[in-house]
Design brief:
Elements: H1 2-6, H2 21-24, H3 27-82, H4 85-101, H5 111-135, H6 142-161, H7 164-183, H8 187-205, H9 211-311, H10 326-432, H11 438-470, E1 478-481, H12 482-499, E2 503-507, E3 514-517, H13 519-536, E4 542-550, E5 553-560, H14 567-571, H15 594-604, E6 608-613, E7 619-625, H16 634-638
Parallel strand pairs: 2-4
Antiparallel strand pairs: 1-3, 4-5, 5-7, 6-7
Helix pairs in contact: 3-4, 3-9, 4-5, 5-9, 6-7, 6-9, 7-8, 8-9, 9-10, 10-11, 11-15, 12-13, 13-15
Length: 646
């Protein structure tokens, strides 16, 4: 039924007699009218909000005026009690601020009365300040300070003269004085005066007081009673001023309360008006918005439903809209589009039937081609993988062949000279042994021993690098004392360093420095680095070997004063068969494999090795080995050895 109300299968026929003036208005005119209506409501609400803000501001100023007066009165009371000039300044500041706030209430009837009373309060407060200043800001200033100084001077003189009876009278006088200040009873003033007269009589009648002392004591007591009575008078005036200020404040409060109540009532009334206007505006805007939305959305909903049916494939629809605005013209265009689509759809349907037959044949041919393509792709992929594997194998074989050639070339070159020298020495021993002395034989044996050691080192390095490359070298993982291993290496090289005039230093703590790794491999690593330091250091230089513990592990440093390394040397430092620019200083031999073996061994123990050097300033090789966990087994703890210095 709902669809039947908005759609029909016949073309839409508009009847001009059914259209009204409101329906013929353009859509933009209707929207503009609604927008102007909303603007008018917005301006009205803003005006009401401004009035409410003004009334609330007046209410806030009234409450602030009342609060400032209360602060001033409270500061006045604190000033009388504490005699602090800061309290007096605060009280006067609050009063002046209160007077300035009265500007906002000039139209109120009670304002003039409040202003007059506040001026009286300010005048009386300043009179109170003057009396407080004469009395003194504390017990040692003003009139109060004067009488205290006078009585203290009299007490000290009487105490020096040893007049205990007069001193008792003075103490009684001081007690009555304190009673007066504590209780405020004026009868104590007379008692103080009588006690002072008694003390003066005692002084005059005392035969042990000379005339000059009597004159001084009489002067002190006269000054005391005079300034004490002056202070009492000032205190009485202060109390009267305080009472008058309290009375003035009592007269101000009712008028001020009326001002505050009036402003609060005004603010409350304006608030009610604002809320009423806002509610009326909101209700009117809501109703108008619903009416406009319904008026605008009804034809658009028809178009939306028609478009949805069209999208679902129903092309036999027509939109029925009677308005002559933009929405009506859009409906006409939509109906024309539907008619054209129906016509075009029929044409396409006829063409599609013909294409379906041709497409069936093409699909069959496509499936056959896809099967052939899959076979060709699979064959190409297999060939590509085989070619890639062949290239990788060729690269590996070529690299292995190059390394083999380099390995054999270095072995032949490095072993040729020692063997030639050994052959010559053996021939000499064979043909000239009867003419050689024991010393010549010993020197020849030493030369042969060094040549054999050189060949052994070459072969050992070549075997080590071959074992590393082939994966046949197995490193142990154990807890060992690095300091002990390094100390043994340093001890082995002391004689060789001494022969070249090099001073070898060793620095390590006196406790064990445990690390995790292979102790034998570590000894070989340190041996190689120390050997290089001795080999490349000139005579008369120093070498330092240190064992340190850091947050990353156990660190071994070997620092020399040799020729150092260039930037190019540092880039190639740990490569295989590398010959650096520096040359051994004692004609020692170098295969170029030692540091490559060092790096492989240290990395195999999860450690790190690097070099810090500047050309001409020596080099420092650093080896870092990992520490064992914080907890060790009982057997590991028993194996800890405290190292002695080398």
């Amino acid at each position: 039924m709902f669809a039947h109300r908005f759609f029909h299968t016949e073309s839409l026929k508009h009847s001009p007699s059914r259209t009204t003036g409101a329906k013929n208005l353009p859509l933009r005119t209707k929207i503009l009218a609604f927008a102007l209506f909303l603007v008018a409501f917005t301006v009205l609400v803003a005006l009401c909000a401004f009035l409410q803000r003004h009334s609330l501001s007046a209410s806030v100023h009234a409450a602030e005026l009342q609060a400032e007066l209360l602060k001033a009165h409270h500061s006045k009371s604190k000033y009388i009690y504490r005699r602090s000039t800061d309290d007096a300044d605060d009280a006067e500041e609050y009063l002046l601020r209160s007077v300035s706030l009265l500007v906002y209430f000039e139209r109120e009837e009670a304002t003039q009365h409040v202003r007059s009373k506040m001026q009286q309060y300010l005048t009386e407060f300043r009179h109170l300040q003057e009396n407080m200043r004469q009395r003194g800001v504390n017990e040692n200033s003003g009139a109060e300070g004067e009488f205290r100084r006078s009585i203290h001077a009299a007490q000290e003189l009487i105490r020096e003269l040893g007049q205990s009876e007069i001193e008792i009278t003075i103490l009684q006088t001081r007690r009555r004085e304190k009673d007066y200040f504590m209780r405020g009873d004026e009868s104590y003033i007379g008692e103080v005066r009588q006690l002072v007269l008694r003390a003066q009589q005692q002084i005059a009648q005392s035969p042990r007081i000379i005339a000059s002392d009597k004159q001084r004591l009489t002067k002190f007591l006269a000054s005391y009673i005079q300034t004490f009575e002056q202070t009492a008078t000032l205190l009485g005036d202060i109390q009267k001023s305080d009472a008058r200020l309290n009375i003035i404040m009592e007269h101000i409060q009712p008028s001020l309360a009326r001002i505050v109540a009036a402003k609060q009532a005004q603010a409350e009334t304006v608030g009610y008006i604002v809320w009423a206007v806002m509610l009326i505006s909101l209700l009117s805007s809501t109703l108008l918005a619903f009416w406009i939305a319904h008026h605008f959305s009804k034809p658009i909903m028809k178009l939306e439903q028609a478009a949805q049916h069209f999208a679902e494939g129903n092309h036999d629809i027509t939109v029925k809209i009677r308005s002559r605005d933009e929405v009506g013209r859009l409906a006409e265009a939509f109906n024309m589009m539907i008619a054209n689509v129906r016509k075009r759809t029929q044409e396409l349907q006829d063409s599609n039937d013909e294409l379906l037959q041709a497409n069936t044949v093409i699909q069959q041919q496509k499936e056959m081609l896809e099967e052939q393509t899959v076979l060709v792709s699979r064959t190409n992929l297999e060939l590509s993988n085989a070619n890639m594997e062949l290239r990788m194998m060729n690269n590996e074989l070529e690299q292995a062949n190059n390394e083999k050639n380099e390995f054999l070339g270095i072995a032949a070159h490095d072993l040729k000279n020692p063997l030639a020298g050994m052959r010559g020495l053996v021939a000499m021993l064979e043909h000239s042994h009867d003419r050689l002395t024991m010393k010549d034989v010993e020197e020849t044996a030493q030369i042969l021993s060094r040549a054999i050691e050189k060949m052994f080192t070459i072969i050992k390095n070549l075997l080590d690098i071959n074992a590393i490359e082939t994966g046949n070298m197995r490193l142990q993982s154990e807890v060992f004392d690095v300091a002990t291993v390094v100390a043994d290496v340093v001890a082995d090289y002391r004689n060789r360093a001494d022969e070249k005039g090099i001073t070898l230093y060793f620095d390590a703590p006196f406790y064990a420095m445990h690390a995790i790794g292979d102790s034998t491999a570590t000894m070989q690593v340190i041996d190689n680095i120390v050997s290089n330091a001795v080999k490349y250091s000139p005579s008369g230089r120093n070498i330092w070997v240190r064992v340190l513990k850091s947050s990353h592990g156990i660190r071994v440093e070997v620092q020399d004063e040799g020729p150092g390394l260039s930037e190019d040397d540092k880039k190639r430092l740990f490569g295989k068969f590398v010959r650096l620019s520096a040359q051994p200083t004692g004609n020692e031999h170098s295969t170029g494999l030692g540091l490559s073996i060092v790096k492989r061994m240290i990395e195999g123990m999860n450690g790190r090795v690097w070099c810090e050097s500047e050309l001409g300033k020596g080099a420092t090789f650093l080896v870092m080995l990992p520490c064992p966990p914080a907890t060790l087994t009982r057997e590991q703890k028993n194996d800890i050895i405290v190292m002695q210095p080398a």
